């Protein structure tokens, strides 16, 4: 499968113009519905020719018109119907190579930036050439297991969530976001426009075997209404503001991202007692809080004060391990006291997310604030295409069964792996194969047959041994007789 050539894109341009369509940039989302219509065109001279040999390459074009409200199609999908990896991307054209004849049901789709899709099907008839021997596709055993993560899963509308599939044994996907949106992408982004709680589901499919597994997460995404306005001041000013343990700034400050509902406010300033109170944000009602800080009474001491400051750290999602200059100081959210003045290296670490780094400067008697948004770790893998002569060899990678040749194995981590090929009546073959991210490594080899003697061979060999033994005994008997 490959993207359509430039000359075919020119044909598409003219086809759209002749059909009365237009090409326009993506505008602000209306989200009123899927594309209004979609065409499906086969390029002549491909697999549709009756005299075409196999394998054959067929080109497809599947342009779509905007929704009634003006949302332009931005993403396209095509399932080729032969058990191969489907196409998903921003281009409305693609070519594909078929290795066998028959009737293939192609499912094609076009979606807007709001993840609203139009879908249809087309049956492609590929005739068998003269004297053609059908090729039976070999599907390795597959048991897909669907799972996924998303970030962020809570926030204000509109909320854009980055979903990442962590499924195993799958190469085709069908997402349902709970608000009417869907996607066939592996790792889609979806924007929730309205407040609410949404159930997200993912169907993970192995294209070759057709086996499907589904993961449902009820109430996985929570979208709240637009936040209210909150003005916070203190006497004296310059107090650090915490709302629900998250650093929000220094007084005086006006916040526009505080969710509707009840919250906990904490004001902290060096030399003053902490100020805490509960408050409620109501829809469409600006709120203001004025606090008078009480000067703290220092304990008498004759020791000189050291030049220390502090660091307040929050992370999204929370729970990240906090390291300051390589030393773990706790988990976020946290306020780390007694930090020497100067520059410090801050590292946040949370399983399933990339490590986060930043250098922060701490002043004497001051508090530095860090709000870190962590990115979900995305596994980078490659593929291995294995062809053996003869076919049918079992394939093991690092001791784990991966299929039967010929087959293309996806989702292999980058680096060097031990590959074992085993087939009855043939010698085992082992190799070390290096996998590169985003690429398919080809491995083709011939297997050496192991000679196993037949029953007749064993019988003849046994008769020969007996004959030699008889001759040897006769010679010895003759020598013994002459001696006497």
Sheet having the most strands: 5 strands, mixed
CATH superfamily caption of the largest domain: Immunoglobulins
Distance between the termini: 91 Å
Work out the strand percent: over 45%
Task: Please write the CATH class name of the largest domain.
Answer: Mainly Beta
Helix vs. strand class: mainly beta
Rg is 35 Å
CATH-level-2 architecture of the largest domain: Sandwich
| Alpha plus pi helix count | 2
Strand order of the largest sheet: 12-18-17-14-15
Number of E strands:
39
- Give the overall average pLDDT: 84
Count structural domains. Answer: 5
What does this 3D model show about the protein?
- The N and C termini lie far apart (91 Å).
- The chain contains 2 helices and 39 strands.
- The chain is mainly beta and 484 residues long.
- The chain is flat.
- Helix content is 9%, strand content 49%.
- The strands form 11 sheets. It has a 5-stranded mixed sheet with strand order 12-18-17-14-15, with no helix packed on it.
- The protein has 5 domains: 2-126, Immunoglobulin-like; 148-224, Immunoglobulins (Immunoglobulin-like, Sandwich), CATH 2.60.40.10; 309-376, Carboxypeptidase-like, regulatory domain (Immunoglobulin-like); 381-446, Immunoglobulin-like, CATH 2.60.40.2070; 455-484.
- The longest helix is centred in the C-terminal third of the chain and has 29 residues, at 455-483.
- Strand 37 (415-422) and strand 38 form a beta hairpin.
What's the structural blueprint in terms of helices and strands?
Elements: E1 2-3, H1 6-18, E2 37-38, E3 41-42, E4 56-61, E5 64-65, E6 73-79, E7 87-89, E8 93-98, E9 102-112, E10 117-126, E11 148-151, E12 154-156, E13 159-165, E14 172-176, E15 182-183, E16 189-192, E17 196-205, E18 212-224, E19 228-235, E20 240-243, E21 246-250, E22 253-258, E23 261-268, E24 275-281, E25 287-292, E26 308-316, E27 321-324, E28 327-331, E29 334-340, E30 342-349, E31 356-362, E32 367-373, E33 381-389, E34 394-397, E35 400-404, E36 407-413, E37 415-422, E38 429-435, E39 440-446, H2 455-483
Parallel strand pairs: 12-18, 19-25, 26-32, 33-39
Antiparallel strand pairs: 1-8, 2-5, 3-4, 4-8, 6-7, 6-9, 9-10, 11-13, 13-16, 14-15, 14-17, 17-18, 19-22, 20-21, 20-23, 23-24, 26-29, 27-28, 27-30, 30-31, 33-36, 34-35, 34-37, 37-38
């Amino acid at each position: 499968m490959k993207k359509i050539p430039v000359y075919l894109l020119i044909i598409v341009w003219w086809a759209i113009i002749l059909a009365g369509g237009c090409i326009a940039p993506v505008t602000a989302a209306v989200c009123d519905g899927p594309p209004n219509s979609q065409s499906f065109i086969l390029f002549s001279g491909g697999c549709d020719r009756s005299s075409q040999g196999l394998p054959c390459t067929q080109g497809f074009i599947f342009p779509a018109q905007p929704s009634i409200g003006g949302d332009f199609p931005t993403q396209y999908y095509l399932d080729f119907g032969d058990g191969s990896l489907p196409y998903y991307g921003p281009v409305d054209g693609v070519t594909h190579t078929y290795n066998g004849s028959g009737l293939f049901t192609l499912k094609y789709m076009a979606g807007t930036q709001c993840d609203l899709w139009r879908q249809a099907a087309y049956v492609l008839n590929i005739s068998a050439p003269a004297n053609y021997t059908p090729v039976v596709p070999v599907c390795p055993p597959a048991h897909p297991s669907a799972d996924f993560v998303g970030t962020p899963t809570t926030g204000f509308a509109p909320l854009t969530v980055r979903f990442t599939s962590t499924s195993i044994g799958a190469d085709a996907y069908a997402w349902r976001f709970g608000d009417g949106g869907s996607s066939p992408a592996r790792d889609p982004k979806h924007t929730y426009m309205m407040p609410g709680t949404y159930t997200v589901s993912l169907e993970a499919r192995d294209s070759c075997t057709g086996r499907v597994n589904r993961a449902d997460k009820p109430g996985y995404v929570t979208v709240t209404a637009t936040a209210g306005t909150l003005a916070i001041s203190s006497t004296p000013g310059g107090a650090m503001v915490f709302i629900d343990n998250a650093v929000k700034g220094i007084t005086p400050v006006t916040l526009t991202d505080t969710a509707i509902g009840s919250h906990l406010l904490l004001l902290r300033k060096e030399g003053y007692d902490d100020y805490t109170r509960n408050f409620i944000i109501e829809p469409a009602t600006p709120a203001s809080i004025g606090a008078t800080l009480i000067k703290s009474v220092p304990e008498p001491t004759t020791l000189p004060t050291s030049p220390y400051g502090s660091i307040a750290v929050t992370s999204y999602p929370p729970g990240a391990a906090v390291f300051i200059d390589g030393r773990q100081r706790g988990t976020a959210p946290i306020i780390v006291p007694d930090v020497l003045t100067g520059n410090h290296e801050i590292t946040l670490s949370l399983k399933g997310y990339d490590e986060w780094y930043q250098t922060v400067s701490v002043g004497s008697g001051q508090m530095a604030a860090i709000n870190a948004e962590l990115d979900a770790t995305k596994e980078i893998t490659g593929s291995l295409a294995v062809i053996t002569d003869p076919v049918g060899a079992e394939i093991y990678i690092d001791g784990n069964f991966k299929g039967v040749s010929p087959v293309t194995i996806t989702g292999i981590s980058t680096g060097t792996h031990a590959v074992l090929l085993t087939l009855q009546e043939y010698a085992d073959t082992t190799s070390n194969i290096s996998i590169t991210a985003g690429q398919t490594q080809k491995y083709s080899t011939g297997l050496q047959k192991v000679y196993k003697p037949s029953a007749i061979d064993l019988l003849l060999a046994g008769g020969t041994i007996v004959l030699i033994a008889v001759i040897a005994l006769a010679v010895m008997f003759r020598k013994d007789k002459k001696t006497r």
